[in-house]
Amino acid sequence: MSLLRDRLNRLTKSAADRPSAKSETRSEPGWDSLGARLQEGRQGSFILRRQSYPLSYIHGRYQLQELCDTCTYLQPLLRASIKDPRQILFLDTETTGLGVGAGNVPFMVGLGYYNENQFVVEQMLIRNPGEEVAMLTYLTGLLPNFDCLATYNGRTFDWPILKNRMILNRVPLENDRFSELDFLYPSRSLWRTTLPSCRLSKVEESRLGFIRHDDVPGSLAPTLYFQYLAEQNPAILQGVFKHNEQDILSLVGLAIHFARALCGSLDLSHMEASELFRLGVWLDQHQLAHLASQAYEQILRLPSTSGGSVRFQLSLVLKKKGRLHEAVQLWKETVDAETGMKLSADYIEACVELSKYYEHKHKDFGTALYYAEKAIGKAGERASLLRAPRRSVVSQDLRKRMERLREKEIRRAMQEWRSNSSGLI
């Protein structure tokens, strides 16, 4: 009888612990000044801060309304079809550490989403580890309303941490097959050669036109949270709330920026050659060759003295696209460049490409041999400068090319001599 009673007690407790859709918020001393309230539900309570922005709000260069008109262009970055920004949930976490192990706890989860006529930012904070289940339960209740999760490095950090915490706390997650939109990867594709860092703070300042003032760095957030746990003063976390809120808004700005890039409405005139080239390669990878060509054309409009290495890389792309005449012009630009380019790898490769071009396209073996000799000579100088073995720099293929061109040039000269001799007889 006691065994049956124990079993019934366990079942009753289990039923009482199931997530409930009913929850309410109420004022909590110390948190009102931060615009936050206490969120209470069946699983417990946590702090919830909710801020609403009109769609006319401008973050950096972009107005929130713009994503309503351009979100469909994000399709190449997603597995699912996105026709409405209300399908996207923007997510950013603040954690007690940097790893993804069991000891790293997300003490704040920031969410952003569109509704009918505004953009809402919700920030969930746990005042102690005992509130984590309530926060995660609230989060899982929101997730089914969205098809896409937009983050910055969330694919390998934010989302795995949240899923690990759900598993450890036995919070069921009905659907984790979101179409993930991680803006870190396209940011690296476009700006890894033009920005000192692809951290969100650098990207938003240089590309979104948003500059933070009196910002609390994300690296300081764990320290401030532990200080709050010790002192129980909510004002300590004011800067952390603001930092997380700005992260969410910057995710929207990046969504608009990349949507513009994918629909061809970015202003290319202010971009430097390196960024234009990376943009073109990125667009080519997403099968948007017509937009990639616009970026390449902009590079060709720049002065030939700017972006020398980029112009050589562009020449190889143009060669693959069959635009050989333009590629040849860029190779000649590289060979005719200032002295600083004379011992670069690009200079040597440009000589090799010109040698191939004159050999195969014009049967001009003399000019082909001229460029091959320049390549092998500069390669030898480069090897001496770098203290590298000569053969490690000058490939066997280039040596064979020179021998073949010499033989072809000799045969051509002999044929010309015979032709002239027969005319004299």
Tally the helices: 16
- Number of structural domains: 2
For this structure, the quaternary state is single chain
- Number-wise, the strands total 10
Q: Helix/strand-derived class?
A: alpha+beta
The largest β sheet comes out as:
8 strands, mixed
Might you state the CATH topology name of the largest domain?
Nucleotidyltransferase, domain 5
Q: Mean pLDDT, rounded to whole units?
A: 86
Strand order of the largest sheet: 1-2-3-8-7-6-9-10
What percent strand?
A: 5-15%
Please state the CA-atom Rg, rounded to the nearest Å: 31 Å
Question: Which tags fit this structure?
Answer:
single chain; 425 residues; alpha+beta; Nucleotidyltransferase, domain 5; Serine Threonine Protein Phosphatase 5, Tetratricopeptide repeat; 2 domains; eight-stranded mixed β-sheet; elongated
Question: What is the topological layout?
Answer:
Elements: H1 2-16, E1 23-26, E2 36-41, E3 44-54, E4 58-59, E5 62-63, H2 66-70, E6 88-95, E7 106-114, E8 118-125, H3 132-142, E9 148-151, H4 154-168, E10 179-182, H5 184-191, H6 200-206, H7 221-231, H8 238-263, H9 273-285, H10 289-301, H11 308-320, H12 324-335, H13 345-360, H14 365-386, H15 390-393, H16 396-424
